[in-house]
Amino acid sequence: MSSTVSEVKLRNPLNKKTFFQRLKDERYLQVMAWLGIIWMLVFNYAPMYGILIAFKDDFRVTTPLFSWKFLTSKWADNFGFEHFLEFFRDPEFANVMKNTLGISILKLCICFPLPILFAILLNEVRSPKFKKSIQTISYLPHFLSWVILGGILTTWLDGETGFINQVLVKMGLIEKGVFFLGEDGKYFWAIVVLSDLWKELGWSAIIYLAAISGIDQEMYEAAEVDGASRIRKIVSITLPAIKSTIVIMFILAVGGLLNSNFDQIYVLYNSSNQAKSNVIDIYSYTTAMRSLRFSFASAIGFFKSVIAFILLFIANQVTKKLNDTSLF
Questions:
Q1: What residues are paired with 56 via a beta bridge?
Q2: What's the whole-number average pLDDT of the chain?
Q3: Which of 36, 79, 105, 191 is most deeply buried (CB count within 10 A of its CB)?
Q4: 165-197: per-residue pLDDT in tens?
């Protein structure tokens, strides 16, 4: 009888805690959650007010954003879209888009699948010591900034005293040194992709290793009893188990297709390879900092953000239809 009464009390909505009671009980969790929300509002949403710069006629850094003078300043021509149209009409637009998409697509095709393969192969290593050694060695470049790695690459790729040129000459593959970061950018895309792979391969594999470690080991044991080979276990167990992780990472990679990694390209950028290294981020930076055209540079950044959102939405919908996995 008493158990029946207690069950009725539990089901009775009048016994539910009020909002303020729950707020008091969860006060520590609420503080942690609100700190994250406030941080996001301050650093992610409040700066979006600065988008107005892209639609103003000629923004000056001496004009405070949160001032009446800025709000009442003249809007750009063509309903505020003059800077966007000017960017599209710029003779450099085609080359900038070609470089940006070319580098990003190469990174997507090469630097996206290889960490997955690396994580799978690393998972198959039986020796714990050897596995940890490989992990440590592959992670280390990630913790070096592109300023340091850029200096290393510039030294290695020097046309006369560069380490790589000396090796190639001694092996008889080339007769004299080649200035790899020059030559009108002939080798620039390859250098960018390979150096990015070198720096981020091990670090990018971490999330896939974490997904693989969550697979039920009994599935592998059952497959081994059935006589499945290692390749068969990878194809039939490992890849399907981490499919959702791969899809989510692919969606995010497609969304960032116009982000060519400014830090990396800026440290390798020079006048000799400008034809192949002038991507959207470099073009926007040089326009803002050298020509002081902040409204024009803001319009370029806003254009890139809109395209990134469209790509993210398309990739999300496509993967949702094909694999029933999506971000939203």
A1: 75
A2: 86
A3: 191
A4: 888 888 887 778 788 888 778 889 999 999 999
191-218 average pLDDT score: 91
The phi-psi region of residue 184 (left if phi > 0; otherwise alpha if psi is between -120 and 50; otherwise beta) is left
Burial of residue 157 (CB within 10 Å: 0-12, 13-18, 19+) is buried
Calpha distance 268→99 (Å, rounded): 14
* pLDDT one-digit tens code per residue, 222-236: 888 888 888 898 988
Structure tokens at 141: 């470049």
| 6, pLDDT greater than 60 | no
The structure tokens 């059952």 sit at 222
CB 83 within 8 A of CB 54: yes
Q: What is the pTM of this model?
A: 0.83
